[in-house]
Design goal:
Blueprint (H helix, E strand, L loop, with lengths): L2 H13 L9 H12 L5 H9 L2 H11 L14 H25 L6 H29 L3 H10 L2 H8 L6 H4 L16 H4 L2 H16 L4 H12 L9 H11 L18 H4 L2 H21 L7
Helix pairs in contact: 1-11, 2-5, 3-5, 4-5, 4-15, 5-7, 5-8, 6-7, 6-13, 6-15, 7-13, 8-11, 11-12, 12-13
C-alpha cells in the first residue's frame, strides 16, 4: 500500500463515520466543551484547567508571555492566569491540547519526530497568525491564533493512524525538509490527490470537533492557496503566517501556499521585515507558551 492508498482508506473510514480519537483527547475535549458553556464562570474555568496539569502549565506560561503580559507583572497561579487570558484564549489553549494529544502516545522514532515537527510548525503558525492579524490583516488576533492552532489538525489525526498505516511516515518528506516539489503555480501540481485528501480529512476532523464555521471557511480558503494583497482575510493571515513560519509541516506534500511563494515580492521588504523584527520576541514567547511537549 502506498501513501495515496492509505489516505484513501482513511478517507473512506471517515465517510462511514469511523472517525475516532485517542483516549487522551477526551479530557481536553471535555474542558473545551465546558468552556463553551455560557454558564461557565471564571472560577469554574480555573478549576477545570487545574484538573489538567499540562494545560495548567501552558495557561500560566501564556499569561506571562510578552504578547499578553504588557504590564510585565508575572502571575504564578492558574486563577490569575485564567483571569488575564479570558475565555477566548482558554478555548484556544484547550483546542491546542486536543490537537497535540491527537497524535497519540509516543510511537516509533519516526512518529515522534514527525509529531514534534508538526507541533513546532503549528505553534509558529499560531503565534505568527496572531501577530499578523494585529499588525497587517486587521483580523481578530485571538481568532487568528485559534485558526493557526487547528489548521493542521488533520495531520495530527494522520499521525494517530501511523501505527496502522506506517507508509504515512515512510513516504513523507524528511524532517525539516521544505514542502512541495514542483511549481506551485503550475495547475498540474495543484491537482494533488494526496493534498486534497489531507485537506478533506482536516475539515472532517474540525467538523467533528465543532470548530466554528468561520474557522472552517478560512482553512478551506487557506487550502486553496490564493492570497489577496494586501492580506485582509483570515485565510490571508494564515497564508502569510505559513510563508513566514521557519518550520514546515512534515506530512503535507503540497504546501497550501499557492501564490504565497511570491508574497515577499509583492509586499514591501519593510513590511515583512517589520513584522519579523518587531514581533520576534512576541512570536518567540508565544511559541514557548504553546509548547505542550510530547503527547501522553
Amino acid at each position: 500500500m502506498n501513501r495515496l492508498a492509505a489516505l484513501q482508506s482513511i478517507a473512506a473510514e471517515v465517510e462511514r463515520g469511523e472517525l475516532s480519537f485517542p483516549t487522551s483527547v477526551a479530557v481536553a475535549l471535555k474542558i473545551r466543551e465546558a468552556l463553551d458553556d455560557p454558564d461557565c464562570h471564571m472560577e469554574a474555568a480555573a478549576r477545570l484547567v487545574q484538573a489538567e496539569p499540562l494545560l495548567s502549565a501552558r495557561v500560566v506560561a501564556m499569561a506571562n508571555s510578552v504578547a499578553l503580559n504588557r504590564s510585565g507583572r508575572t502571575v504564578s497561579d492558574v486563577r490569575s492566569a485564567v483571569t488575564r487570558l479570558g475565555f477566548s484564549a482558554l478555548r484556544s489553549l484547550a483546542m491546542a491540547l486536543v490537537a497535540r494529544q491527537m497524535a497519540g502516545p509516543a510511537g516509533t522514532p519516526a512518529q515522534q519526530r514527525a509529531a514534534a515537527q508538526l507541533w513546532t510548525h503549528t505553534a509558529h503558525m499560531a503565534a505568527l497568525a496572531r501577530v499578523i492579524a494585529r499588525r497587517v490583516s486587521g483580523q481578530n488576533p485571538e481568532t487568528a491564533l485559534f485558526a493557526g492552532l487547528v489548521h493542521e489538525v488533520g495531520g495530527f489525526y494522520l499521525l494517530s493512524r501511523a501505527a496502522q498505516y506506517p507508509v504515512l511516515l515512510e513516504d513523507a518528506p524528511p524532517a525539516g525538509a521544505a514542502a512541495a516539489e514542483g511549481d506551485p503555480d503550475d495547475p498540474d501540481d495543484m491537482d494533488d490527490p494526496e493534498a486534497e485528501l489531507e485537506r478533506g480529512l482536516t475539515l472532517a476532523v474540525l467538523r467533528r470537533l465543532a470548530v466554528p464555521q468561520q474557522i472552517l471557511e478560512a482553512i478551506t480558503a487557506y487550502g486553496e492557496g490564493y492570497l489577496a494583497l494586501p492580506p485582509a482575510s483570515l485565510a490571508d493571515t494564515l497564508l502569510l503566517a505559513n510563508h513566514l513560519a521557519p518550520v514546515r509541516s512534515p506530512l503535507r506534500r503540497g504546501e497550501a501556499d499557492g501564490e504565497a511563494g511570491d508574497i515577499a515580492l509583492q509586499l514591501s521588504d519593510e513590511t515583512l521585515a517589520g513584522i519579523l523584527q518587531e514581533s520576534a520576541e512576541e512570536v518567540e514567547s508565544l511559541t514557548r507558551a504553546l509548547d505542550f511537549g510530547a503527547p501522553r
